Protein backbone atom coordinates (compact mmCIF):
# COMPACT_ATOMS: atom_id res chain seq x y z
CA UNK A 1 0.00 0.00 0.00
CA UNK A 2 1.26 3.46 -0.89
CA UNK A 3 0.56 5.11 2.49
CA UNK A 4 1.26 8.65 1.32
CA UNK A 5 -1.00 8.47 -1.70
CA UNK A 6 -3.81 6.86 0.31
CA UNK A 7 -3.46 9.49 3.03
CA UNK A 8 -3.44 12.33 0.50
CA UNK A 9 -6.52 10.99 -1.29
CA UNK A 10 -8.44 10.64 1.96
CA UNK A 11 -7.41 14.09 3.24
CA UNK A 12 -8.71 15.54 -0.03
CA UNK A 13 -11.79 13.36 0.46
CA UNK A 14 -12.39 14.77 3.94
CA UNK A 15 -12.51 18.32 2.57
CA UNK A 16 -14.60 17.16 -0.39
CA UNK A 17 -17.16 15.47 1.89
CA UNK A 18 -17.37 18.48 4.23
CA UNK A 19 -17.74 20.97 1.37
CA UNK A 20 -20.26 18.91 -0.58
CA UNK A 21 -22.09 17.94 2.61
CA UNK A 22 -22.57 21.60 3.48
CA UNK A 23 -23.95 22.19 -0.03
CA UNK A 24 -26.30 19.20 0.21
CA UNK A 25 -28.05 21.00 3.06
CA UNK A 26 -29.37 23.56 0.57
CA UNK A 27 -29.74 21.74 -2.75
CA UNK A 28 -33.34 20.59 -2.17
CA UNK A 29 -34.60 24.13 -1.62
CA UNK A 30 -32.45 25.48 -4.46
CA UNK A 31 -33.93 22.85 -6.80
CA UNK A 32 -37.46 24.14 -6.14
CA UNK A 33 -38.15 21.13 -3.89
CA UNK A 34 -37.51 18.63 -6.67
CA UNK A 35 -38.22 15.18 -5.18
CA UNK A 36 -35.36 13.55 -7.14
CA UNK A 37 -32.93 16.06 -5.62
CA UNK A 38 -34.63 15.48 -2.25
CA UNK A 39 -33.64 11.82 -2.29
CA UNK A 40 -30.01 12.98 -2.04
CA UNK A 41 -30.42 16.22 -0.07
CA UNK A 42 -31.75 17.26 3.31
CA UNK A 43 -35.47 17.90 2.77
CA UNK A 44 -36.19 19.15 6.29
CA UNK A 45 -34.51 19.89 9.61
CA UNK A 46 -34.78 16.40 11.11
CA UNK A 47 -31.74 14.62 12.48
CA UNK A 48 -32.27 11.86 9.89
CA UNK A 49 -32.19 14.25 6.95
CA UNK A 50 -28.99 15.78 8.30
CA UNK A 51 -27.37 12.35 8.08
CA UNK A 52 -27.54 12.75 4.29
CA UNK A 53 -24.94 15.53 4.60
CA UNK A 54 -22.06 13.12 5.23
CA UNK A 55 -23.66 10.07 3.59
CA UNK A 56 -24.17 11.05 -0.05
CA UNK A 57 -20.92 13.03 -0.41
CA UNK A 58 -19.07 10.05 1.14
CA UNK A 59 -20.69 7.73 -1.41
CA UNK A 60 -19.71 10.09 -4.20
CA UNK A 61 -16.13 10.21 -2.87
CA UNK A 62 -16.08 6.40 -2.56
CA UNK A 63 -16.94 6.18 -6.26
CA UNK A 64 -14.23 8.71 -7.16
CA UNK A 65 -11.48 6.84 -5.30
CA UNK A 66 -12.78 3.34 -5.97
CA UNK A 67 -10.41 2.64 -8.84
CA UNK A 68 -7.14 3.98 -7.40
CA UNK A 69 -7.67 2.84 -3.81
CA UNK A 70 -9.16 -0.56 -4.59
CA UNK A 71 -5.83 -1.46 -6.21
CA UNK A 72 -3.87 -0.22 -3.18
CA UNK A 73 -5.89 -1.66 -0.30
CA UNK A 74 -7.43 -5.09 0.10
CA UNK A 75 -10.28 -4.03 2.36
CA UNK A 76 -11.57 -0.93 0.60
CA UNK A 77 -15.32 -1.51 1.01
CA UNK A 78 -15.19 -2.79 4.58
CA UNK A 79 -13.01 0.15 5.66
CA UNK A 80 -15.29 2.62 3.89
CA UNK A 81 -18.46 1.02 5.28
CA UNK A 82 -17.17 1.13 8.86
CA UNK A 83 -16.05 4.75 8.47
CA UNK A 84 -19.40 5.68 6.96
CA UNK A 85 -21.45 3.95 9.67
CA UNK A 86 -19.33 5.69 12.28
CA UNK A 87 -20.05 9.08 10.69
CA UNK A 88 -23.76 8.29 10.74
CA UNK A 89 -23.62 7.19 14.38
CA UNK A 90 -21.66 10.15 15.74
CA UNK A 91 -24.15 12.80 14.61
CA UNK A 92 -27.29 11.52 16.39
CA UNK A 93 -25.36 10.32 19.46
CA UNK A 94 -23.81 13.75 20.00
CA UNK A 95 -27.02 15.59 19.10
CA UNK A 96 -29.30 13.63 21.42
CA UNK A 97 -26.72 13.60 24.22
CA UNK A 98 -26.16 17.33 24.35
CA UNK A 99 -29.80 18.28 23.68
CA UNK A 100 -30.82 16.17 26.68
CA UNK A 101 -29.13 18.87 28.77
CA UNK A 102 -29.59 22.05 26.76
CA UNK A 103 -31.27 23.49 23.68
CA UNK A 104 -29.97 22.84 20.19
CA UNK A 105 -26.81 24.84 19.44
CA UNK A 106 -26.09 25.51 15.77
CA UNK A 107 -22.31 25.66 16.20
CA UNK A 108 -22.29 22.34 18.05
CA UNK A 109 -24.29 20.77 15.21
CA UNK A 110 -21.90 22.09 12.56
CA UNK A 111 -18.88 21.00 14.61
CA UNK A 112 -20.40 17.56 15.07
CA UNK A 113 -20.74 17.19 11.29
CA UNK A 114 -17.08 18.15 10.78
CA UNK A 115 -15.90 15.83 13.56
CA UNK A 116 -18.04 12.94 12.27
CA UNK A 117 -16.54 13.24 8.78
CA UNK A 118 -12.98 13.55 10.07
CA UNK A 119 -13.37 10.58 12.44
CA UNK A 120 -15.02 8.43 9.74
CA UNK A 121 -12.25 9.21 7.28
CA UNK A 122 -9.50 8.59 9.86
CA UNK A 123 -11.02 5.24 10.78
CA UNK A 124 -11.16 4.24 7.12
CA UNK A 125 -7.49 5.20 6.71
CA UNK A 126 -6.53 3.24 9.82
CA UNK A 127 -8.48 0.19 8.64
CA UNK A 128 -6.81 0.28 5.23
CA UNK A 129 -3.60 -0.77 6.99
CA UNK A 130 -5.24 -3.97 8.21
CA UNK A 131 -4.78 -7.21 6.34
CA UNK A 132 -6.82 -8.12 3.29
CA UNK A 133 -10.54 -8.71 3.79
CA UNK A 134 -12.22 -11.79 2.46
CA UNK A 135 -14.57 -11.54 -0.47
CA UNK A 136 -17.43 -12.34 1.90
CA UNK A 137 -16.60 -9.41 4.20
CA UNK A 138 -16.14 -7.04 1.26
CA UNK A 139 -19.44 -8.26 -0.20
CA UNK A 140 -21.19 -7.72 3.12
CA UNK A 141 -19.74 -4.20 3.30
CA UNK A 142 -21.06 -3.43 -0.19
CA UNK A 143 -24.47 -4.77 0.90
CA UNK A 144 -24.45 -2.49 3.97
CA UNK A 145 -23.63 0.55 1.82
CA UNK A 146 -26.37 -0.30 -0.69
CA UNK A 147 -28.86 -0.93 2.14
CA UNK A 148 -28.07 2.46 3.70
CA UNK A 149 -28.46 4.20 0.34
CA UNK A 150 -31.82 2.50 -0.18
CA UNK A 151 -33.19 3.46 3.24
CA UNK A 152 -32.07 7.05 2.79
CA UNK A 153 -34.11 7.23 -0.41
CA UNK A 154 -37.13 5.31 0.94
CA UNK A 155 -37.26 7.26 4.22
CA UNK A 156 -37.14 10.55 2.33
CA UNK A 157 -40.54 9.76 0.87
CA UNK A 158 -41.98 7.49 3.54
CA UNK A 159 -40.28 8.11 6.89
CA UNK A 160 -41.33 6.32 10.07
CA UNK A 161 -43.05 8.59 12.57
CA UNK A 162 -40.19 8.54 15.05
CA UNK A 163 -38.46 11.57 16.61
CA UNK A 164 -35.27 11.20 14.52
CA UNK A 165 -37.35 11.71 11.34
CA UNK A 166 -39.39 14.70 12.58
CA UNK A 167 -38.55 18.19 11.33
CA UNK A 168 -37.72 20.15 14.49
CA UNK A 169 -39.18 23.35 12.98
CA UNK A 170 -42.47 22.11 11.54
CA UNK A 171 -43.19 18.79 13.25
CA UNK A 172 -43.60 17.19 9.81
CA UNK A 173 -41.93 14.08 8.39
CA UNK A 174 -40.21 13.61 5.03
CA UNK A 175 -40.67 15.89 2.05
CA UNK A 176 -42.83 18.87 3.06
Topology summary:
Blueprint lengths: L2 H28 L4 H4 L8 H4 L1 H21 L3 H24 L6 H23 L6 H23 L19
Helix pairs in contact: 1-4, 1-6, 4-5, 5-6, 5-7
Please name the defining characteristics of this protein:
single chain, 176 residues, mainly alpha, 72% helix
Task: Describe the protein's architecture and organization.
The structure is a single chain. The chain has helices spanning 3-30, 35-38, 47-50, 52-72, 76-99, 106-128, 135-157. Helix 1 (3-30) packs antiparallel against helix 4. It has one domain. It is 72% helix and 0% strand. The termini are far apart. The relative contact order is 0.17. The radius of gyration is 16 Å and the shape is globular. With 176 residues, it is an all-alpha fold. The longest helix has 28 residues, at 3-30.
